[in-house]
Amino acid sequence: MTDPKPPKRIFPEASTDARAAEHVPSSPQTESEAYKLAFQDAAFLLRPDLRPVRFQLELLKPELLMNEANIASTFVFYGSARVPEPAKAQALLEAARTDWDRKVAERLIAKSKYYDEARKLARQVSRFPGPHMVDGRGTYPFLDRSLKWKPVSRTREAVR
After folding, report:
1. Number of structural domains, the chain?
2. Collapsing DSSP states into helix, strand and coil, what is residue 151?
3. What is the pLDDT of residue 125?
4. 140 is in which domain, residue-wise?
5. Which of 10, 14, 79, 131 could form a cystine bridge with 143, CB 3.0-4.6 A?
6. Least confident span in 68-77, 80-89, 139-148
């Protein structure tokens, strides 16, 4: 107790606990479902009352993986997987056999321009480093180190 600096890890890692649980001697107590470690008990984790915990894990997992990969931010596009690229939409029109198929293909052709627009936007956004979004004024606000929004001009030189 004379060490002024506390240890970095007080509790063992989950993998250590999991390995230890594999080597527990068999007894009526250790064979009970209640004896399983909670994180290794799929039936327990799938209980309806643990839905908030599962939801939190669904949010935490990608955050941890992105942090490990040094990914600071992402850009999410919401859209439809039903709208094909223009060439595929045109192919659907050419392959249409019924009036209904033609009408559907024509609607997809009209919407397929947004497929290319989304690609253009993705290309533009990927050229700018750091967290950013397009606001109503057409500027690209960037997060600075103090986590406050500051508007920055569109030029790449201003970002450097």
Report:
1. 2
2. strand
3. 77
4. 130-160
5. 131
6. 139-148
Q: Which long-range contacts (CB under 8 A, 24 or more apart) does 38-41 make?
A: 39/14
Q: Does residue 91 surpass a pLDDT of 90? A: yes
Q: Is 53 domain-assigned?
A: no
Q: Does any domain span residue 81?
A: yes
User: How does DSSP assign 58-109, residue by residue?
Assistant: HHHHHHHHHHHTT----------TTS--HHHHHHHHHH--SHHHHHHHHHHH
Q: What is the pTM (predicted TM-score) of this model?
A: 0.46
Task: Please indicate, yes or no, if residue 5 is contained in any of the structural domains.
Answer: no
For residues 85 and 116, is the Cβ–Cβ distance under 8 A? yes
**What is residue 140's predicted lDDT score, i.e. its pLDDT?**
46
- Which burial class, exposed, middle or buried, applies to 93 when counting CB atoms under 10 A from its CB (0-12, 13-18, 19+)? middle
**Domain-located, residue 85:** yes
